[in-house]
Amino acid sequence: MTSVRSKQELELMAHLMRRAGFGATRDELDRYMEKGYDATVDELLNPTGADVMPTDLIRRYLVDQSDLRNRTAGNAHWIYRMIKTEDPLQEKMTLFWHRVFATGATKTIQARVVINQLDKFRELGMGSFKDLLHALSRDPAMLMWLDNQDNHQGSINENFGREILELFSMGVGNYTEEDIKECARAFTGWTVVNPEYMAIKMNNNTARPYGYISWQFDFDDDDHDHGEKTFLGEVGDLNGDDIVNIICRQPATARFIARHLYHYFVADEVPVPQWPYTPPRDQQAIDSMTDAYFASDYSIGAMLETIFKSDYFKSEDARLARIKSPVEMVVGTLRMAGGIEMPSLETYAAGKVCAYMGQDLQNPPSVEGWMGGGDWINTGAYVQRINFASKVLGDTSKPGVRRMIEQIKEAAGSASLSAERLVDLCIELTGPMPVMEGSRRSLIDYAAKWGDLSFDSAESSAAAEKNIVAMLQLVATTQEYQLA
Looking at the chain, which terminus has fewer C-beta neighbours within 10 angstroms, N or C? Predict the structure, then answer.
């Protein structure tokens, strides 16, 4: 009974680390198991801030990752951080908000301004949604992405006002066209200024040769509409801050954010544009997160705690209920394999392969961001996924791969290793994850052609290691590996 309970607890911990992070090796899972599930959740929700980027080495060898004006360098820089982070939920939430508040570097001239936005997500992403939305409304990347620098008193541009309601906070059906116009009026004068101008204004030079001052937020009171406005039933000389405060008080906002979190951490929902017409997959889960939102002064962390400690998250039905995004799959595989100690060409390649799979960081397909779910899988993307995971897990020079080989050999001991035992060990070390019997049987049938693996001589041990690596690669091709 104890061993069964232990196996169930290990599988639950692995599920938590795949969803609240990018997965965990067996050694890492053993350390988390010593802490216990609830203590691990609490640790994830309270990041240490221990991540330190090797800026001295980056400046010396990867200058493009120092000033971060180049989107390719920015993506490699971020992927490296996701691979190396000791605060996985913090980085997972940074990726979450980049998906919700989708912002592309294509309109911001340089990628640094989007990287600065990611820093805001990292700092505020698990705190009060109100604080995050206030910061976002002053974020140069978002203001430029949605043209608010062209939103003037007497000549409003509705783009930012519309999207903050439709895509960032409340969702369609919870406001009127007049609310959009009044929202836009409230954000007139919220603009950006040229970094060179700011440097002169602050009597300072730009940070050459290691970087440039990014776009800066500026409020132009002369361009702000101080007239009376009516927004969601509230009247007054409302400005952008007032709008954010009103939005955060709306039950629709809590429900909208809750559904996004459920879609990201629990189970795939229908695409966001269908939400006004399709009820949530689990209304009780949405209600529980909504209650946590209002009971905690709009805390995203409280909503996350509600998810991770809930029965619906812990249930076996949730284990294969969503498809990993390309970034989740790529980063999780690289973390498992190990061997990346500083930003390198491998992180540049990882950024590119994510784009080939459909998730080009800092370049969302539209302001709606990436829909996720079934959109992640098509013939071309699935081939890219399989090829990438197989290539990484087939590299026996990587310490994580080497460690899995040694763990399988240790489990075998002096006995030979049957096809069934080999498959189960490979699934356990790349997960442990639930695998449908059809997938497991196919893997066993394939492994059976090798016969039992033995390690009683140098020759047989070398052949066995080769077959172990092949099986690790095959496990990564299963549909279960591609599901979180």
Answer: N
| Element of type H or E holding 357 | none
DSSP 414: T
The end-to-end CA distance of the chain, in Å, is: 27
If DSSP codes are grouped into helix, strand and coil, which group holds residue 373? helix
For 196, the enclosing helix (H) or strand (E) is: helix 195-201
| Beta pairing partners, 218 | 191
Q: Percentage of residues in the chain with pLDDT exceeding 90?
A: 84
Give DSSP secondary structure letters for 55-100.
HHHHHHH-THHHH--SHHHHHHHHHHHHHH-S-HHHHHHHHHHHHH
Chain CA centroid to CA 98, Å: 8
Q: Nearest-5° angle of CA 144, CA 98, CA 247?
A: 75
pLDDT at residue 211 tops 50:
no
Helix (H, G, I), strand (E, B) or coil at 155: strand
3-class secondary structure per residue, 226-254: CCCEEECCEEECCCHHHHHHHHHCCHHHH
Identity of the residue numbered 334 = L
CB within 8 A of 436, min separation 6: which ones? 480
The Cα–Cα gap between 215 and 112 comes to 9
Across the strands, what pairs with 453?
417
Q: Give the whole-angstrom CA distance, residue 422 versus residue 420.
A: 5
pLDDT, residue 3, reads: 58
Q: What is the C-alpha separation between 355 and 364, in angstroms, rounded?
A: 10
pLDDT value for 198:
54
| Rounded Cα–Cα distance for residues 116 and 132 (Å) | 14
Residue 376 has pLDDT above 60, yes or no: yes
Structure tokens at 126: 């698990």
List phi, psi (to 5°) of 104: -105, 145
315: enclosing H helix or E strand = none
Tell which phi-psi region holds residue 261, choosing left (phi > 0), alpha (psi between -120 and 50) or beta. alpha
pTM: 0.94
Q: Which tokens belong to 82?
A: 């996701």
Tokens representing residue 430 in the block:
């790349």
Nearest one of 152, 150, 175, 153 to 162, comparing CA atoms: 175
pLDDT in tens, 169-181: 999 999 999 999 9
- 8 A C-beta contact, residue 242 and residue 236: yes
pLDDT tens figures, 274-321: 999 999 999 999 999 999 999 999 999 999 999 999 999 999 999 999
Residue 341 has pLDDT above 80, yes or no: yes
